[in-house]
Amino acid sequence: MADTLEFNEIYQEVKGSMNDGRLRLSRQGVIFKNSKTGKVDNIQASELAEGVWRRVALGHGLKLLTKNGHVYKYDGFRESEFDKLSDFFRAHYRLELVERDLCVKGWNWGTVRFGGQLLSFDIGEQPVFEIPLSNVSQCTTGKNEVTLEFHQNDDAEVSLMEVRFYVPPTQEDGVDPVEAFAQNVLSKADVIQATGDAICIFRELQCLTPRGRYDIRIYPTFLHLHGKTFDYKIPYTTVLRLFLLPHKDQRQMFFVISLDPPIKQGQTRYHFLILLFSKDEDISLTLNMNEEEVEKRFEGRLTKNMSGSLYEMVSRVMKALVNRKITVPGNFQGHSGAQCITCSYKASSGLLYPLERGFIYVHKPPVHIRFDEISFVNFARGTTTTRSFDFEIETKQGTQYTFSSIEREEYGKLFDFVNAKKLNIKNRGLKEGMKQSYDEYADSDEDQHDAYLERMKEEGKIREENANDSSDGSGEETDESFNPGEEDDDVAEEFDSNASASSSSGDGDSDRDEKKPAKKAKMSKDRKPRKKQLETKKGKDPNAPKRPMSAYMLWLNATRERIKSDHPGISVTDLSKRAGELWKAMSKEKKEEWDRKAEDARRDYEKAMKEYGVGSKSDSSRAERSRKKKKKQEKQMKGKAEKKGAVSKSSSSTKSSAKSASESFKSKEFVSSDESSSAESK
Question: In this structure, which CATH number among 2.40.30.10, 3.40.50.720, 3.40.50.150, 2.30.29.30 belongs to the domain 341-421?
């Protein structure tokens, strides 16, 4: 039996929405990677408690229950895959995959059971529906009634927002069944209640999205943003990634928090929380905890009393509470020495940061693109000026991002970075050795090294060595990519007619003046054979049989529409590339079938040519003879006219020799054709 099973296009139910991704079952456990967010769920084999197979809306589904009460649901399986999964569970997890169908009687009276983080409404022994309590945003009680409210699902057109349960009164003394029901729900629900004091508070921090100044209160399980107009409570479980990015001016820092699901304000969704700090701001921070509690909870990552730059303190506290690594820019350095590139996205100017495992753009709107979801990138010429270019990224889902108005000096650095990361560059294709080597089940923010930690260590060493020196070491940057000669060569390639023979602009204007007549001469030389070609094309008989197609062209005409339907919106060049790949991969037997068709077409062509030659020989010979006769007559008429002109000219010249001597001299350019012919006859 295989040690791993892999399934594509599997859907995971999270927060009421179905997120597609890839599922892998191995001896060690179950791994699911979300295609949209890149988030990875890893369930160890030792944690699995039960596996249930049942029929659902998207075919068949797999429900996994863990020993700590968590529930994972995966849909999109085929019925035929049950035996394979059942044998795998039995062999590697020592679990029996139980078949359990849902009750479809339509009754609304049953029993509610609480198991882990799941509320199950059952009729008899069969479940009717299940509610993950993490989807519950609020629980209210009334007389013999409990109301559950749910988080809104942004991806679904219709969302279930409320369910009410009628709880009949019981005769047991001292126990209120309604309150007992509500407490069971609230103990597992995703209801944020600000109980107790905050661990620490950061006052009046500048926030770019959502815009404004906010007080940030740090609680053990969530983050509270308190502003003048709005308040937001962000659970740490919704934080996907943390980014610490230096501004191009080297005086400010961005701290970016990626969120899924996003925070909401009316119809606006904020997937990123972006804070802007000045490097000069310092703070002394005291945590609202005992030293023993700090040591026990954070294990040396935080201390009770801390001091330093404000951005360092915020990022350090967030890293310890969220338990996520902080992503910083890697080894990329632009033309100006900065770790980012100035560009525009959707008519707003911002900064694009090439990271070790993706790109991030700040700030309006913020965009994060992982390398493993990129289909290809493209370097395009700028639409307004030749001093800039556009950088286009297309994902495997078909989404396209265009970052425009990038300075041309950044091209070399960015191209080298993309090449080093082995990304597919459009119009060049995947060359040998350029295959992407990303683990499809690796978390996108889990690098092999902690770049943030290394950066902090390096900065600490620099501070110790240069305690009295305020320079941050940015003076040693070199502009190796800037080469005036290469830039001028690029201009020549864009505008000269002969790119290979183009020279730099340093040769002066005289070279340009010399190139112009050469260009004209070249054009005049090229025109003559083109006229001949046109004449030959005009003389071609339209009734002649057409040449037969090759086997490949016959196959391409038959399969072109199918390729277009499989790849909607495919360009002509990409279609021909795809057709070439399919033809190359085709078996020998299928190719022989098209070779036979091409051979039949060739025989038909030869037969048609024989018939055409017999029928058209007499017609063509007659036409040729009449054409020659007409030309001969035209020549004879022209010769007679020239002789008459010569005789009249000679008689007139003898009579008026004195008169002609007094007239002005005519240059050769202005001698008429009649005069030249008379001179030749003399």
Answer: 2.30.29.30
